Amino acid sequence: MTSMEAIIFAIVSLIAVVGALGLVFAKNPYHSALWMVFSFVGLAGLLALLEAYFLTVLQLIVYAGAIVVMIAFVMMTIDFRKVGGLSKFVPQWLWGLIISFGILIDLFILASKMKIDVSQSGKNLAIAGSNTKALGMELFTHYLFPFELVAIILLVALIGVVVLTKREIK
Amino acid sequence: MENYVPFLMVAFILFAIGAIGVLVRRNFFVVLMSLEIMINSAGLVFVILSYFSGTVSGQVFFIFVAAVAASETAVGLAIAVLMYRVRHTVDVTEFSMMKR
Amino acid sequence: MNQLHFPILSFITFWPLLGVFILLFINRKNEAAIRIVTFVFMLVNFLVSTLLYFHFDPTTWQPQFVDKIPWISSLGINYYLGIDGLSLFLVLLTTFLSVVGQLSTWSAIKDKVKEFNIIFLLLLTGMLGVFESLDAFLFYVFWEFELIPMYLMIGIWGGPHRVFATMKFFLYTFTGSVFMLVAIMATYFLFHHYTGIYTFDMFQLASHPLPYNLQFWLFLAFFIAFAIKVPMFPFHTWLPWAHVEAPTVGSVILAGVLLKMGTYGFLRFNLPMFPNMVHTLGIVVIVLAIIAIFYGAMVAMVQPDWKKLVAYSSVSHLGYAMIGMFALNSQGMEGSIMEMVNHGISTGALFLMVGILYERRHTRLFSEYGGIAAIMPRFAVLAGIITLSSLGLPGTNGFISEILCLIGAFKANIWYGILAAGGAVVSAIYLLMMFQKVFYVKTRNVKNLGLKDLDLRETFYMGICVVVILWIGIYPNPLLSRMHVSVEHLLQHVNSHSEQITIKDVDKNLACGKLVKINAISRGGL
Amino acid sequence: MEWLLLLCVLSPAVGCIINGLFGRWTYRAAGVIGSTFLGISFALAVPLIIYAIQGHVVDYSYYHWIVSGKFTVPFGLRLDSLSAMMLGVVTFVSFMIHIYAIGYMGGHKGYARFFTYLNLFVFAMLLLCMGNNYLTMFIGWEGVGFCSYILIGYYYEKKTAADAGRKAFVTTRIGDIGFIVGVLFIILYFGSVKFTDVFAQAHMISPAIITIITLALFLGAIGKSAQFPLYVWLPDAMEGPTPVSALIHAATMVTAGVYMVARSAPLYALSPTGSLVVASVGAFTALFAATMALTHFDLKRILAYSTISQIGYMMIGVGVGAYWTGMFHLMTHAFFKALLFLSAGAVMHAMHGVLDMRLMGGLRHKMPQVCIVMIIASLAIAGIPPLSGFFSKDVILSEALMLGHPIIWLVGVVTAFMTAFYMFRMIFFTFFGESRVPEGMHPHEAPSVMLVPLWVLAVGSIVIGGILGVKVHGHISIEHFISLTSPNAFPIVHKYSETLLIIISIIAGVLGIAVAWLAYIPKGAFSFRSFVVRTFHPLYRCFFNLWWVDEIYNFLFCRPFWHVSERFLWKAVDVKVIDAGVDDVGRVAGLTGRAVRILQTGFINNYACWVSAGALIICGWYLLKIM
């Protein structure tokens, strides 16, 4: 890793982690949403560092853009005065914290033990210099069937959402 | 770049932070957002391994993960709206209809 | 091989599903049409299945009329149907009893007719699949599939305690099935470990028996599954419940076909796959079977409820089948298969008898009956012949199977034969008592006086049973000759692996950490 | 010839099917149809018997009945001297009884049913006698048992009749287990059940096995032929219609055991032990049953005990190895005992079903012809020359003595005395003395359709013994005939003067009649009887209560069996242990569920925590393993 890359890595990962922490610990959910955008931008930076340029764009547009807006939009339809006086954490927050740290430790051990073949590192990620083209080739040849499945999942989710929200509440 | 451990560490830290958010927060919307973080960190691991093993498949999976995450968010929000209409709250501790 | 060049087994298995599809389009109010359509479908199924009988090649043990299509080839799972001498008559029995049983429901099932017939057709598919599949995985699928329609049949059209009975039936047999699933999987992986082939083909799995200590546990697991289904002595208590609460046709199918799956399972799994254990643990099975013969008969004798009596008599009768099977000689084995077929017909017909009177009087207690012979003479004659066949009178089908089982048992060990022969006395006692309590003596109950004798439909289906009973009793050779080669092949296979081991050896092997090895193998396989 | 034989055997079956299927429409004609087919059978039997007398043997397997592995059971018939004799007896006597039954059963409900059963019985009996292997024989063996069951229970609306039928079937089935076990041994050691194969190999099998086989087969004979200790069903079987008692429980079915032993002569000949058991059981039964007949008042039951006793004689005959004597007695007995039963039936018919001799007396004026034929039959059974019973009984006793069984001979002679006594006690009680007929009953002579068979049988009872049993040119024709198939098994050990033995047995018979006369006819008879009864009071009570055998069986076997089944096996073991055990397993699952339910808080946070904790633990475990 060159020093330049290291510096960029440090910055973007810091952005991602801080954003995530802000999301979790902000009292106001609107602030959380904003922190999420922050974190996602950091993530997009990481993706760019990994030469997944198409995904970087995707991350910025879909996540940091569409999804956050959607969440914020839905939150606005809800009257937050009624949920005022809400404390931030559940009563069993300590357990949640412990379990999360446990998972973190697990994952760290895993990371330290993991061995992957890095000889191909950074190769094959682009066809004729275009990451998007490589991705497209892979997606619409090898992964065509799962891709269609994902489409169905999206459709199902769409229908599900409509059904759920249109229902009359007695 | 040959050292993938830092990248993984970041992904894992994000995952753990997301888990904390899911497990400890009361606000349903924050829980949903934390879930997004967790899912994204998982997707990130795909991309990391894709890069270091020199194949573009991982990136494809990131697209799938993103699609699933989007569906999940949509359904989650729908549920949130519905719960709010029923219970007039978005406090997850109030969502205990499964009991009894 | 398939001598008909037509997937006849797939046809008869899935033909009922077409019936289900057609029934969906018939108005539920039009009950007559529903009954007739179902009947026609079952009749066609039966008639087509008789082709199996006529085209069966009795000179080979290889599976015949084979339909084999790769299903999940990476796991060695095939859609593999085929029959041999062991299963041919069970398939025919199934199609036959379904026709007879369906006829009996015309007057017995009055509500939810459409649902009932749909379930019955589904049940038929499941049962045929069990007897036809030669792929262990497919077998298991059908084995579980058949449970559900039966569960619904008892649970919806049953008697007052139907929910309890059906839960007991379902959970009990399902517990057995779980053991079987585990054992099938273990056999599959272990077979791969020792031969390097992933396969669920039953014949292939049997071709290389596993080491003894593994056989021991697998035999036990399969034994539990099938012993519950048969049911063998200590596992039988679901049977009276299920029979008593089931509608008539449910009892007929339960006794006639479902119980045979247990004995058939022994023939298909326990005997060929774990031959050494058959020699080692066979004595346990035989002792349990002898207990079952006497115990079932003695408990049947004192029952005040007609259906319970017949239910316990099944326990007793299938004891003969088990003894014959584990006698490990051709007479015993052929007797055992004959006993399965004959028990299906005779006991099925006995349940039909109960059902006919139950429809008229809505009770099954002996104390309510008496003197029926004078009121319903035609019924009494048919019932008498059926009782005799259950009793094993020479000239009826029951005798053929009983004597063959006895010869087999006797050849295996003189005492088995003598003890099993003693059971015949008890069976005479309870069957004659049953007949006397219902048909003889002057009726004391006014309600019995006006009972109508059998109508044409009832005479027909009872008469058909009687004809089959006499036919098998007088000329059983067409059946015996068709099962002969398969039986010989199975026996030769089992007897070529006759080295015995003691339970002690198994324990020792286990203590040496063999289980760890199994574990490692299964992980490697996954 | 073999097809003639088959036709002869099947003819009653055809009658059975016609009457059975069309009984509703043949109502009046059922009897005639049944008798016609029997007549055909008898007519066909005549040439067959002549063929057999000429020394021919027919042994033909019509088809393979059961083929399993190397083991084959043919369905085949065999005509040789032994079965030819049975063929003659069975077809003739049943033909007579069918004709009699036309009159006797006339007007009964289920007339066609009766003839259906009767024809079926004859068919089964012919299969039993003519089968050329043990399993074909067994079809007949069980078939006659079953027919006996339905015919005893013919008046099924009477509980006693139905019970008696069941008792008969179950008791004989106990014996049949023996038969089946015997056959199983034969299959195991001989590999075939055909008589010819078995007898040809018999000398190659160890004697111990042969003894087991003979004893097992004899158990079957004990059940079927009502020998001690399985005789208890026969007296109860008298609940059936009288023609049934005459045909099944006197002339044919109950003698099947004797026939079977004679048929298995080559086996019994190799086993002196087995033969001795046969003879001893026969002798004991003869005496034991005779004692019970002494004091009874029921006309038909006396005859039943007498039948048991007489079959005991036949068993002595076949047991000592002189098979022809047993078969000879079987034949004469078929005639005179059928005659006795049919006469008793005529009396019963006249008395509207009353069988208690205390309600009879002086009937000789009302029904002289029946009286005469009954006296003829009684003289025959008492062994008074020159009636048939004399010849057959005498040869049994003399052969028993000469073959070295003096005790059995002595028992036989005593029994002969008792037989004469109780038969004439019955005659005197029924036909002589004052009339004790209740008011309103008008006994009358039997109709001619019943009388004709009686007289035919009476003539048979008189002459058949003389024709077959007199020594002409140094040999007895029946001995010669039967010995073609079943020659005498053992050599004669002692020679006695035949004249002396004949005189002894005649004395025994005459003495019995004289004592009966003394006890029932003269003026002081009553006080003589009461003196005897008082003197031998304990013995009299034993006789009168039939040695309490039924009660003992009930106490020792029937009730414990029932109680063990009901109280122990069903209500305790099945319901309280096995089934409850199964339910308890289910209950444990339920309780576990209730315990685990505490974890179900309903808060999704908690569920999320559990899921994560689970993931943590599983991952951690795997990680620990790879570390």
Largest interface: A-B, 90 and 76 residues
Q: Helix amount of chain D, in percent?
A: over 70%
Strand segment tally of chain D: 4
Largest sheet of chain D: 2 strands, antiparallel
Helix content of chain A: over 70%
Strand content of chain D: under 5%
Helix and strand pattern of chain D:
HHEEHHHHHHHHHHHHHHHHHEEHHHHHH
Strand line-up in the sheet with most strands of chain D: 1-2
User: What CATH first level of the largest domain in chain A would be assigned?
Assistant: Mainly Alpha
Low-pLDDT sequence parts of chain D: none
> Number of DSSP helices of chain A?
6
- Separation, N- and C-terminal Cα atoms of chain A: 61 Å
Biggest beta-sheet profile of chain A: none
Structural class of chain A: mainly alpha
What is the helix tally of chain D?
25
Overall 3D shape of chain D? globular
What this model shows, in words?
The complex is a heterotetramer of chains A (170), B (100), C (526) and D (627). Chain A has 170 residues and is mainly alpha-helical. Chain A is 73% helix and 0% strand. In chain A, helix 1 runs antiparallel to helix 2 and helix 2 packs antiparallel against helix 3. With 526 residues, chain C is mainly α. Chain C has a domain of 206 residues. In chain C, strands 1-2 form a two-stranded antiparallel sheet. The longest helix of chain C has 34 residues. The radius of gyration of chain C is 22 Å and the shape is globular. The C terminus of chain C is likely disordered. In chain D, the strands form two sheets. In chain D, strands 1-2 form a two-stranded antiparallel ribbon. In chain D, strands 3-4 form a two-stranded antiparallel ribbon. In chain D, helix 14 runs antiparallel to helix 18. The N and C termini of chain D lie far apart (93 Å). Chains in contact: A-B, A-D, B-D, C-D. At the A-B interface, helix 1, helix 2, helix 3, helix 4 and helix 5 of A face helix 1, helix 2 and helix 3 of B.
How would the blueprint of this fold be written?
The complex is a heterotetramer of chains A (170), B (100), C (526) and D (627).
Chain A lengths: L2 H23 L3 H21 L3 H24 L16 H21 L17 H12 L1 H23 L4
Helix pairs in contact in A: 1-2, 2-3
Chain B lengths: L4 H20 L3 H26 L3 H31 L13
Helix pairs in contact in B: 1-2, 2-3
Chain D lengths: L1 H21 L7 H24 L4 E11 L2 E9 L1 H24 L6 H20 L3 H19 L6 H32 L4 H7 L5 H18 L8 H4 L5 H10 L4 H8 L1 H5 L2 H23 L4 H21 L3 H28 L17 H15 L5 H15 L3 H26 L16 H22 L1 E2 L2 E2 H7 L14 H23 L4 H11 L1 H8 L4 H48 L7 H23 L1
Antiparallel strand pairs in D: 1-2, 3-4
Helix pairs in contact in D: 1-2, 1-4, 2-3, 2-4, 3-4, 3-10, 3-15, 3-19, 4-5, 5-6, 5-10, 6-8, 8-11, 8-13, 10-15, 11-14, 11-15, 13-14, 13-18, 14-15, 14-17, 14-18, 15-16, 15-17, 15-19, 15-20, 16-18, 16-19, 17-18, 17-19, 17-21, 18-21
